[in-house]
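Technical note accompanying the year-one report. For the benefit of new consortium partners, we illustrate the data format agreed upon in the data management plan: each record pairs a sequence with a structure-token string. No post-processing was applied to the example shown here.
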Amino acid sequence: MLLLKLNKNCNKPVRPHEVRPWYFICLVLTMVIAIAITTETAIACQPCKSKLDLEQSLKKADLVIVGKRIDYDPEEKMPSGIKVNIIKVLKGEIKKKQIEVKSWYGMCPYGIVVDDRIYVMILRKPLKMQGMHTTVNMGCSVTKLLVKSNKVFVDGKIISIGDIAKIINMFHGRSE
């Protein structure tokens, strides 16, 4: 038995073996597109291949401060930048009492992401285009340390802010 279909372009009967190649081509193209869409890498934020330890982070920093975020809003999600009051400068020089620090890069937390408590923040100078201080090594470093009773918790140890200043001064050949 011979099945016939009408060809829309010329109203002539078309045999099934003449239609199958077009179905096959459409099927193959659909599969190729589906594979291309599903196998594309979909990583929004690149993880750090390695992370600098405290000493390396302090050494590469331009500015190390004890500071407190002053524009914290628990309802705000992923702010581009934050405002920080400087309580104490441990490394670097800055005349301002308040600075802007890069926090989120789109959906990626490569900057300083903190609440309204006091932190030691390890920073780089602002980029000319941004105007905000940034983290060392694009966040692949020690970026912040929560301060409690003038001490911080680092690598399983509790150290004082004075000890952090001593580590910084070792790099400059100075003693406190």
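Partners are asked to follow this layout when depositing records. Strands lie at 5-6, 13-14, 63-69, 81-91, 98-102, 118-124, 134-135, 144-146, 151-154, 157-160.
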